[in-house]
Amino acid sequence: MKFLSTRGGEKVTGARAIVKGLSDNGGLYVPERFPQVSREELEALLEMSYAERAAKIIGKYLDEFDASELLAACEGAYSRFERNDPAPLVKIDDGVFMLELWHGPTCAFKDMALTLLPYLLRKSSDICGVKEEILILVATSGDTGKAALEGFKDADGVKICVFYPSEGVSKMQKLQMSTQDGNNVNVVAVKGNFDDCQTAVKEIFASETYAEELKKKNVILSSANSINFGRLVPQIAYYFSAYADLVSSEQIEMGEEIDFAVPTGNFGNVLAAYYAKRMGLPVRRLHCASNENKIIADFLSTGVYDMNREFYKTTSPSMDILLSSNLERLVFEVSGRNAKLTAQRMSQLKEKGRYEITPEELALIQATFDGGFADEETSVEAMYGVFEDVGYTMDTHTGCAMKVVLDWFEKHKKDETKTVIVSTANPYKFPQDVLYAVTGNDVKDSFKGIKRLRAATAMAVPKCLVELRDKPVRFSKTADRKKLFDEVLEFIGK
Ligand SMILES: *Cc1c(COP(=O)(O)O)cnc(C)c1O
């Protein structure tokens, strides 16, 4: 299987796409076609463990990887989760399920891909005969940073530098990153919001001057953000796994179409669901949930992507994003894979902060996708309502998706399609906000929030969060976004 750039001009192997992260002209790598999963193959998944399912799905794209080695890597990655099943489904109501993707080492769904990415990257660089040291640059809205640090810490031949917006992450997220251990890691706060941070990091990737400078030091760059296909591909697997679980627990018939609702920021998670559908998974609709930064909800209803709007800081910081990178992959698909047009639109976006798709393209998108949003008040209402009714506690991001699903049910009263809500973070990652949602209590301190939330919900507290309290802070630097490359040079120190 080869990979193309959404902006044209390249055709590379999967290994090369993973090593590079982003194509030379700034485009994103997409598979040249969607591999198909037959009914027999779907049925075979029912009997498999999560790691086996993941290896099957991933292997369809990365066909140059050795299948038994890939399986061993998946087994290793998913054994780092706190349960046997890294992606359990929890029924919260008739026809409504939570797909909990936060039982990994850093308590967010990013672990589903970032526990495996170090293997994918090492193997890819072997296949490509890369001799240089790999430097991974990450721009994070909170959860990717920690999951990537944990995944890559002390890995051979790799260094990782994470940039996060100084005012854009929760206290717990910040503490998780600033206390990170490992001898190959660096964490820097960047003045500004996530978009500023992501744009500054993308500029480093795009600069030939920087690449030359790094080459002299025997270093090449790679990305652990969801622009990297190696991040995206493990995410496709959990959609198949959820479906297999619904069939084997007799909640649905084999072949029955279901809906997924996904809390959406950089559009990586929900794009993986779309890829699963294109591979043949019986999916009817994808509900994309935004918070007050509802640029995607607006795009899905109008076909206009317009960043010229106010940016809000919310209690779901991992979705405080206006420049949603992975949407480029969807826009590329519905344009009939027109790379030239996609490149034009992306340069319009860069210059004017806006682009528009045609009514025909919009209709193609709307055949599968719809978008909604929750503001601070309505997400709290949704979280509180579910907690009161069925005793289920969810985090603030999942709360936005819950609200969007409730709106859908309100509008489509007779809809009997089963809905899976993708639950993206452990509620204890946002303890004060979740505590406020379920009890109305406000506390100032995160650890007090954890204690009170535990008293209110009786949910087990993950050890990795409690431990943070006594861990020394190693990284406390804040940098100007124009000076990130200086930080990179200082870190690699050659
Ligand atoms: C990253 C993240 C999201 C957004 O996912 P995308 O793939 O960027 O759309 C939602 N919720 C949580 C908790 C996250 O960490």
Give the SSE layout:
Layout: E1 2-5, E2 11-13, H1 14-20, E3 29-31, H2 39-45, H3 50-61, H4 67-78, E4 89-93, E5 96-100, H5 111-114, H6 117-127, E6 133-139, H7 143-152, E7 158-165, H8 171-178, E8 185-190, H9 194-206, H10 208-216, E9 219-223, H11 229-248, E10 258-263, H12 268-278, E11 283-290, H13 295-302, E12 304-306, H14 327-334, H15 339-352, E13 354-356, H16 359-366, E14 369-373, H17 376-390, H18 396-411, E15 419-423, H19 431-439, H20 446-457, H21 463-466, E16 478-479, H22 484-492
Parallel strand pairs: 5-15, 6-7, 6-9, 7-8, 8-16, 10-11, 10-15, 11-14
Antiparallel strand pairs: 1-2, 1-3, 4-5, 12-13
Helix pairs in contact: 1-6, 3-4, 3-11, 11-12, 17-18, 17-19, 19-20
This protein binds pyridoxal-5'-phosphate.
Pyridoxal-5'-phosphate binds next to helix 12.
Q: Could you please describe the fold and organization of this structure?
A:
It is a single chain. This protein has 494 residues and is α/β, with parallel strands linked by helices. The protein is built from 22 helices and 16 strands. The chain has a six-stranded mixed β-sheet with strand order 4-5-15-10-11-14, with helices on both faces. A five-stranded parallel β-sheet has the order 9-6-7-8-16, with helices on both faces. It has a three-stranded antiparallel β-sheet with strand order 2-1-3. Helix 11 packs across helix 12 and helix 19 (431-439) packs across helix 20. It is globular, with a radius of gyration of 21 Å. The structure holds pyridoxal-5'-phosphate (PLP).
